[in-house]
Amino acid sequence: MSATALPPPRFADPAVFGRVAVLMGGTSSEREVSLNSGSNVLEALRARGIDAQPVDGIPALVEALAQERFDRVFNILHGGDGENGVVQGLLQGLGVPYTGPGVLGSALTMDKIRTKLLWIAAGLPTARFVRIPAGGDLAAAVRELGLPVFVKPSCEGSSVGVFPIRSEDELAPALEFAAGYEGELLAEQMLTGGEYTVGILGEVALPSIRIVPASGWYDYHAKYIAEDTQYLCPGLQGGEEAQIRALALEGFRAAGCSGWGRVDVMRHADGRFMLMEVNTAPGMTSHSLVPKAAAQLGIGFEELCWRILEQTV
């Protein structure tokens, strides 16, 4: 199948899905975004006649599954154990179908450093970076790469803890954050040729989106709050659009992912596309990007949720 063609939905009867748990909330730094996404998914599934119920966090899910209250799980638990392979391993072990990539792809792509190492080994392009172990010398890593750079945690999402550093004067907030952060960080080359993202739905790469934040970079505010961020979809035309979609799909698969997700891509000033990271439980809020891309192919939000859930049958 081509990168742009979507097959027709596989099912028409909502009863085929049985009882669906919409897993949301949890305890990660992305809890509020997850609750927002989850409520939207829940409403969409119910609008299509699906017996869907909200479940807040993994302990509540374990209790519900022990009582055999659900047949499958729509996982929209952003960050933490929702995306790092923990809930995927739980559900796989219990034989409960779930949306999104499996244990390996989820665990790997939650870790930006390991994902980039895999892409490099596979010969796929990604921005230059330096690993900063817990307690490591952030300033030395920044100097090694050369300004401008981003400093970010290896295992967080939604731009939590991300610092753009264009001059030595902007180092202080990142140093303060690093001093109190227990995980690994990375300093990453700041690319200036444009920011893109490509949604993946099954075997299809959706139209790219070019993200143009008014503030200059795509931080938490630009993602979830601001109304002046521009989303250009498709983000490219002709051969370049085909190229970025093919690269995103290849990067997604190389990282052990299947089902649905989103691949973020940056463009170098010289025109080259660089894989940045994979999101295995993308946002489904009013500002979210996979729904925007699906809409370009005539797939509305309710149908998108249906198609994602179809992957569990």
Helix content: 25-40%
Number of domains: 3
What order do the helices and strands follow?
EHEHEHHHEHEEHEEEEHEHEEHH
Question: In CATH, what is the homologous superfamily of the largest domain?
Answer: ATP-grasp fold, B domain
Span between N and C termini?
Answer: 20 Å
Structural class: alpha+beta
CATH architecture of the largest domain: 2-Layer Sandwich
* Number of DSSP strand runs: 13
Q: Specify the overall morphology.
A: globular
Q: How much strand?
A: 15-25%
Number of helices: 11
Which radius of gyration do the C-alpha atoms yield?
19 Å
Instruction: Quote the CATH topology of the largest domain.
Output: D-amino Acid Aminotransferase, Chain A, domain 1
Arithmetic mean of pLDDT: 93
Largest sheet: 6 strands, antiparallel
What are the salient characteristics of this protein?
313 residues, Rossmann fold, Dna Ligase, domain 1, 35% helix, globular, Dala_Dala_lig_C, D-alanine-D-alanine ligase activity, manganese, cell wall biogenesis/degradation, nucleotide-binding
